[in-house]
Each structure stands twice: as structure tokens, then as C-alpha cells.
Specification:
This protein has nine helices and two strands; from the N terminus they run H-H-H-H-H-H-H-E-E-H-H. By secondary structure, it is mainly α. It has a two-stranded antiparallel sheet.
Length: 242
Amino acid sequence: MTVDFAELNRRAVPGLEALTELLVGGAADHAPASEDSRPFQVGWGMVAALHRQAAAVVVLHSQGLGHEAAPNRRLMIEYVAHLQWLVRDGEDAVDSMNKAHQYKQGGLRKAADDGGYQYDAEAADAVRDAVIPGNPANTYNNTSNLLGGLGGGLLQSWLAETQLSHATLVAAGAFYRETGEHLELLLTPAYGIEGDPMEASPYVAFFFMFFGMIAFNELMVGAPWTDALKAIGDTAGLAGAV
């Protein structure tokens, strides 16, 4: 089966524009009460960052740099997963994210101390000394555990993008080809398969933006985007996703 990347991308552009219109349409008007707003606030930060990553993927693709957008696509998967986690575990997910932040800041502080770098010790102390309740959701601070637990192909997609997001043999191998005794060195990547999967980058950006916004919709009072997301999904070939 041959995938028509051009057709997918034709659907992606208006889809992303429609999603952007929703984002700028007053999500704050549907925030929960302040005592229940932590998942919403963190979720907004995630979905806003997700939107910028989608824009970055599209811009890189337009410049012939779809291969180089792998870290952006990988990060989009992580944002979608965290949004889905917030929907599922709410306050427990936020506490777990805070626990991870505390741990990582501890590592950063040690590295700064070892290297003789200066920082705001008072702020670092506040992070270190914060009392954050533990809960079973802490296991999902491990990205593989989170993605595998959520399912839906997130782990597989993330692992595939990871191969191109770091200095791996897979990433390096895209820039040379050996045929018998002939070695060809490339300045643009080739994958040894029919077609260029990176041509689908704009649709991938739309796809993950769409599912991230489905999750954030659930964090707002009354899920106000439901009808609009359904219409966007139906037009883009994702009928039944909402």
C-alpha cells in the first residue's frame, strides 16, 4: 500500500490552522476552580508548548529538514503523553511531575556544585526541601513506563523518533550507502526504502497536536472543544477519534 504523503499534508495544513483557532479562543474561560486547577494549568503549558513544536516541525519540513525534525516530533509525543496522563491521574500526575522536577533539580545542583557554577541557592533549597506526597503514578515519570502504559502506539513512535534524535548508528547510517565495493557519501539522508517517510512530517505534527488537544479538552470545564475537534478530525480523516 502506497501512502500519499502529499494528500496527508494537504489535510494537515487546514487542520493545524483550525486547531490554532481553538487554542487562541479563550481556554482560560473554561478553567476549573482554583483549588482544582493544577492539572489544567500544567496541561495548558503542555498544549501550548506542543503547538510550538508542531509549528517547528512544519517549518523544518518546508526547508527540506524533515529528518532533522525528529527531536521535535519526539517531544510532541512526550507532550501528548503527559496531557493524557494529566487527564487520567489529575492531581497525582502533577505531584509526580513535581517529584521528578525535584529529583532533576537535585542532579542539576550537584553538577553546578561540581563545576563551580553559581546559582540561586535559596530557590534551589526551596525545591530540595519541598514535601511532595508520593503516589503510584510516580512510576510514570519513567518515559517508557508512561508511554507503554498509555498504549496507542506512543511508545513505538517515540522509540522510532529517538533513533534519529541522538547520535546513533541509525542516524549516521542515513548519510552513506554501500553497494558492493561502492561507497556513496550523502549530505542529505536516505533510508533505503521506497519513498521518504519524512515527507509526512506536517501530518505527523497535526496528528499529535490533534490528540494532545483532545486530552486538554478534558481538562477544561465542560469539554468545550468537543464538537469542533470532532469536525476537524472528520475532515482530516480521523473520524471517530473524538
